[in-house]
Design goal:
- By secondary structure, the protein is an alpha+beta fold.
- Helices cover 20% and strands 43% of the residues.
- The strands form three sheets. A six-stranded antiparallel beta sheet has the order 6-5-9-3-11-12, with no helix packed on it. Strands 1-13-4-8-7 form a five-stranded antiparallel beta sheet, with no helix packed on it. Strands 2-10 form a two-stranded antiparallel sheet.
- Strand 5 and strand 6 form a beta hairpin.
- The protein is globular, with a radius of gyration of 26 Å.
Length: 230
């Protein structure tokens, strides 16, 4: 009888664990272009791409399945403080398409973790704590300053593993243009997210019904086995 009760409790515990962990999301770095260096090995200064209300910058990336993007970062000049918008766009080929999501964040002035040869200080800045639900496919992440009251600085152009395509928005032409003069931007970008289905903090009604049915069935099984032995 003790062995039967112990087995029943073991099965119930396993059932509960499986139900609560089903569909758990996996946090991961969707995109990381790697460390951004300030100078080439030979000492040549690398590009500092202007980023302000007159020119925005962005890159294309691809994800392979349903994903919730929860954080984005870029590698920015922090010589001057300011605000930026991180914007997720649909993909229309060589340039960003319609806006899907956006999130404002601040770039704080400071010493930074890396200093480029021309004296600009650089560090990672961005936003997190949001939930951008997207399906598999290609998207553009851009950093935008809507007007002159926003950020006025640079992004350093030497990520070790640059993204697939780059573009900049020219306010004079009022359009996105592939790269600066069709060159690679090589922007430093990080994108964090969760793949798969998010776990529920509270079991859904259907889950609770299934769990309750399991308890009832297993309890009945335990009583039946006890009756046979006695």
């Amino acid at each position: 009888m003790k062995g039967t009760r112990r087995t029943t409790l073991t099965v119930l515990s396993a059932l509960l664990l499986c139900l609560l962990s089903a569909g758990a999301a996996q946090a991961n770095a969707i995109v990381y272009t790697g460390p951004v260096i300030a100078e080439s090995a030979g000492g040549t200064r690398l590009p500092d791409w202007t980023l302000n209300y007159s020119q925005w910058l962005g890159s294309e990336f691809t994800i392979n399945g349903p994903t919730t993007i929860t954080g984005v970062q870029g590698f920015f000049d922090c010589s001057n403080a300011g605000k930026l918008l991180a914007v997720l766009h649909a993909n229309v080929g060589m340039i960003p398409g319609d806006t899907l999501f956006s999130q404002e964040f601040s770039v704080k002035a400071g010493s930074g973790t890396v200093t480029s040869r021309n004296g600009y200080n650089y560090d990672w800045f961005g936003a997190d704590g949001f939930a951008w639900d997207v399906g598999p496919g290609s998207y553009w992440l851009t950093f935008e300053a809507p007007d002159s009251s926003y950020y006025d600085g640079h992004m350093l152009g030497e990520a070790q593993n640059p993204l697939e395509k780059d573009a900049h928005y020219d306010w004079t032409a009022k359009t996105w243009i592939p790269g600066p003069d069709y060159e690679e931007l090589r922007l430093g970008i990080r994108i964090e997210g969760e793949s798969g289905t998010k776990p529920s903090a509270v079991p859904e009604p259907g889950t609770m019904m299934l769990l309750g049915s399991g308890f009832v069935a297993l309890a009945g099984l335990g009583r039946s086995r006890f009756a046979v032995k006695n």
